[in-house]
Please model this.
Amino acid sequence: MSSPEPGRSVRSDARRNREKLVAVARAAFAAADGTVALEAIAREAGVGIGTLYRHFPTREELVEAVYAAELDDVTASAPALLRKLPPEAALRAWMDRYAAFVETKRGMADSLRASLASGRIATPATRSRITAAIGAILDAGARAGTLRAGLDPEDVTLLVLGAFLSTSAGQDAERIGRLLDLIVDALRPDLSTP
Model:
């Protein structure tokens, strides 16, 4: 991705333009059924197409920036949710946030495939960050006694991914919600045994 030279600061207006482009692209990719025109993103962000290309010389670079911003948000939301909610409620709220991340990825699937194929986006690193967020919530739930102790966060990651992969893009939000509820219920401790 294009970034300033080391030691060189980015002008505040350039930083704002970049942030606005990423925010607009995030919303556009999440809402899109097909390809999103870069000109429409620039127009919605209130900048010219040249400004967009100065920050993101290719569509893939814009997609990668959106993906990185979404991943940062979804993984950073776990500790924030734990500060506000009991662990089992934080887990369910986090799963909803993760579902929104998955929907955004679906709107930019073609460009993401190119970035994944080229190695510019590393899926093991993404999976590791997602699993770490889930693990933090599971640990808090085990300490509180509201989620089972000893759960493997990778197993829970696979359960959640399975719920997303088994449903159609954007059409089964209600079903995804039910599946995520079932996952949380399955992670609660069995109170019937001493």
